[in-house]
TrEMBL record:
InterPro entries: 4Fe4S_Fe-S-bd, 4Fe4S_Fe_S_CS, QueG, QueG_DUF1730. Residues 157-187 form the 4Fe-4S ferredoxin-type domain. This is Epoxyqueuosine reductase. It holds the Pfam family QueG_DUF1730. Keywords: 4Fe-4S, Cytoplasm, Iron, Iron-sulfur, Metal-binding, Oxidoreductase, Queuosine biosynthesis, tRNA processing. It comes from the Bacteria.
Length: 358
């Protein structure tokens, strides 16, 4: 926990405007809404004098990159393999805020992803770490595994010194990215990021990203996990941030069979519930298609008649990837002839009538 001042990062409005201007936020319109308040703590709350930024360690027990080789399993990002951090971090912030406001005429506002606040640059200004070339805040003590939250307060608190950038000539995070989501160091195009595609993006996922998604069914940790500063990281010690072993490499066959009720039960209280069942199944079916395991074709086939079009569409793609077009023709006759959704029809067409090579 460290302190900064609201005006500590004068570059923020320009940098956020440039990012939004490029359209790098994709369909996250909420990033654009109240952009002036996001870029300027004083615009959000004119009463703010100091900002306390809190970082919570969620260091995983194992290297998330190891999961990627287990093609019949789903890879869930480390932060999502545990209780929703919004609840945990907010609880810690409220405790601290209560302590501050009990001290007299001090007003506080507590934020963890709930308001337009740019947590990473504020955390860097408060000296909790620095924004790496992958744009995430990392530290010498915890590596890349930190979740952030902020308290805006009317109290005049002594600010901490900012941390300096320690990336040097390293570019491991930029090179490991499976979808080339970094147009330049320190700049992320969210539209290409697997975290955005699997969590925030609502519709079908464009074909160009499907292979690269591999078995990542919720989020992506590659650019964080590859970072050499993780050698100083340690597993989360706070019991509230303990990983649930059931979320470590769940079998794809099991995930592909989740209906709405089973999805809700399984992921209640965790960040995974954010996508809802249909979007999650879409991701799982992409992983099924990438598994190279014909035994999983039955899991894809079972979803060809699903009520959700994004699920049916990705089931078509997964069947095609595992069985090939010839074996899928009878499946089309069984499931595709009555199809009316244009996106699902496009998947059938791409599978059965691929454009001629020139
Ligand atoms: C939108 C969002 C996303 C989007 C966009 C990510 C992004 N990089 O912007 C998507 C969905 C892709 C995403 C993914 C993830 N997210 Co997210 N996300 C956010 C959110 C809500 C806002 C981030 C934001 O303001 N982006 C706007 C851009 C413009 O800001 P920026 O990234 O700071 O960009 C800076 C640089 O571009 C820099 N810059 C530009 N040019 C230059 C040049 C130089 C030389 C320098 C030094 C800097 C620089 O200036 C910009 C402003 O500071 C925050 C929560 C919050 N309220 O802050 C969580 C947050 C950033 N996410 C978080 C996490 C954990 C993740 C994932 C790891 C989840 C996962 N495993 O799948 C991935 C990481 C992907 C990645 N490499 O960023 C954590 C990160 C914690 C940390 N240690 O930093 C946060 C802070 C949530 C939290 N409360 O803890 N996320
Ligand atoms: S989270 Fe994954 S897809 Fe997104 S920028 Fe990092 S490595 Fe690339
Ligand atoms: S991998 Fe290298 S460039 Fe990327 S954040 Fe870590 S130290 Fe910086």
């Amino acid at each position: 926990m460290q302190v900064t001042r609201p005006e500590a990062v004068p570059e923020l409005p320009g940098r956020l405007a440039a990012w939004l201007g490029e359209g790098a936020h994709g369909t996250m319109d909420w990033m654009q809404d109240r952009a002036d308040q996001r870029a300027s703590p004083r615009t959000l709350w004119p009463g703010v004098r100091s900002i306390i930024v809190l970082a919570t360690n969620y260091g995983p027990e194992t290297d998330p990159l190891d999961l990627l080789a287990r093609k019949d399993r789903g890879a869930i990002a480390a932060y999502a393999q545990r209780r929703d951090y919004h609840d945990v971090v907010k609880g810690r912030l409220k405790e601290l805020g209560g302590y501050l406001s009990a001290k007299g005429d001090v007003r506080v506002k507590v934020f963890c992803d709930t308001a337009p606040v740019m947590e990473k640059p504020l955390a860097a200004a408060a000296g909790l770490g620095w924004q790496g070339k992958h744009t995430v805040l990392l530290s010498r003590r915890h590596g890349n595994w930190l979740l952030l939250g902020a308290i805006y307060t009317s109290a005049e608190l002594e600010p901490d010194a900012p941390e300096t950038d320690r990336c040097g000539s390293c570019r491991a995070c930029l090179d490991v990215c499976p979808t080339n989501a970094f147009p330049a160091p320190y700049r992320l195009d969210a539209r290409r990021c697997i975290s955005y595609l699997t969590i925030e993006h609502a519709g079908p996922i464009a074909p160009e990203f499907r292979k690269a998604i591999g078995n990542r069914v919720f989020g992506c940790d590659d650019c964080l996990a590859i970072c050499p500063w993780n050698k100083f990281a340690h597993a989360a010690r706070d019991a509230r941030m303990a990983a649930d072993p059931a979320f470590d490499a769940p079998p794809l066959a099991e995930l592909a069979g989740l209906d709405d009720a089973a999805f809700r039960t399984r992921f209640a209280g965790t960040p995974v519930k954010r996508t809802g069942r249909d979007r999650f199944l879409r991701n799982v079916l992409i992983a099924v298609g990438n598994s190279g395991d014909p035994a999983l074709a039955a899991s894809a086939e079972r979803n060809l008649g699903d009520a959700s079009a994004i699920v049916r569409g990705m089931a078509v793609w997964a069947c095609g990837a595992l069985l090939g077009p010839a074996a899928c023709r009878p499946l089309y006759e069984r499931h595709g002839l009555g199809e009316t959704d244009p996106d699902v029809l496009a998947e059938w067409r791409a599978l059965l009538d691929p454009p001629e090579e020139t």
